[in-house]
Amino acid sequence: MHDVLKYVAFTSTASGGNAAGVVLDAHGLSDGQMLAIAADLGYSESAFLFPEGGHAYRIRYFSPLAEVAFCGHATIAAAVALGERIGPAVVDLFTQAGPVQVEITKGDGITATLTSPPSSTRPATGEELRRALEALRWSADDLDPAYPPHVANAGNDHLVLAAATRERLADLDYDFDALAELMAEGGWTTVHLFWAESRTVFHARDPFPPGGVVEDPATGAAAAAFTGYLRHLGRLDDGEVVTIHQGADMGRPSLLTTTPVPGDTRVKVSGAAVPIS
């Protein structure tokens, strides 16, 4: 028997955030069984931990359709679940995208701060942008020219596109099959759509067709990649805190905070999580 815990991450209330399944000891589960659990839950991702002694764990992530190399919100959910059992700690997670250290702290609730795999970014090609805009049913005029289209990575690839207005971001009605095809070809986990409220405050939405999900209400891996993208563009200083509001347009408000690691390409991503029944 393997206990499957359920949490929502990047929220302090059960009515917000992004749901994730968590199995704290997945030894004995096959790939097919983990995928079946994730599919049965229907959450965008679920995390499966394999204790290796002390505060070290191998961790694997599954969407309802496939394994994912790294997932931020399921990492936060798993870390909070661990924190409820072991208290404040620093845990070492070994993901398919590389090692991820997580600091678990306790105040009014339990908060987890992960340090992402190294981030990188490149400009999107003209063809990638053309097909993405067509699938999203956006025009070039819907983009904010201050933020060039890129494919950013901090464990997974994400196409990053800036909406010119909050209204454009709020009106999300895209061609699921066309975007899924493009993302499969590019190996992108989400398309990270955002609007800049200010230099360090952003609103985001993340279509997630590869996971069989229309939209992700909170995407920690994309937030890390996006923060690395901002630093690469010279729009963010080391140690500066970024606030990302996500999920509000789908009724699941989520709050993510990120900080570039000084002298490094990695990014810290912080959030709370709460159990759900």
What do you see in this structure?
- By secondary structure, the protein is of the alpha+beta class.
- The protein has two domains: 5-114, Diaminopimelate Epimerase, Chain A, domain 1; 120-268, Diaminopimelate Epimerase, Chain A, domain 1 (Roll), CATH 3.10.310.
- The protein has six helices and 17 strands.
- The protein has helices at 31-41, 72-86, 126-136, 166-170, 176-186, 220-232, and strands at residues 5-9, 18-23, 45-51, 56-62, 67-68, 89-95, 98-106, 110-115, 120-123, 150-153, 157-162, 188-196, 201-208, 213-216, 242-246, 254-260, 267-275.
- It has an eight-stranded mixed barrel with strand order 1-2-3-4-6-7-8-17.
- Strand 16 (254-260) and strand 17 form a beta hairpin.
- The protein is globular, with a radius of gyration of 17 Å.
- The two termini are 18 Å apart.
- The mean pLDDT is 96.
List the helices and strands and how they pair.
Elements: E1 5-9, E2 18-23, H1 31-41, E3 45-51, E4 56-62, E5 67-68, H2 72-86, E6 89-95, E7 98-106, E8 110-115, E9 120-123, H3 126-136, E10 150-153, E11 157-162, H4 166-170, H5 176-186, E12 188-196, E13 201-208, E14 213-216, H6 220-232, E15 242-246, E16 254-260, E17 267-275
Parallel strand pairs: 2-3, 4-6, 11-12, 13-15
Antiparallel strand pairs: 1-2, 1-17, 3-4, 4-5, 6-7, 7-8, 8-17, 9-10, 10-11, 12-13, 13-14, 15-16, 16-17
Helix pairs in contact: 2-6, 3-5
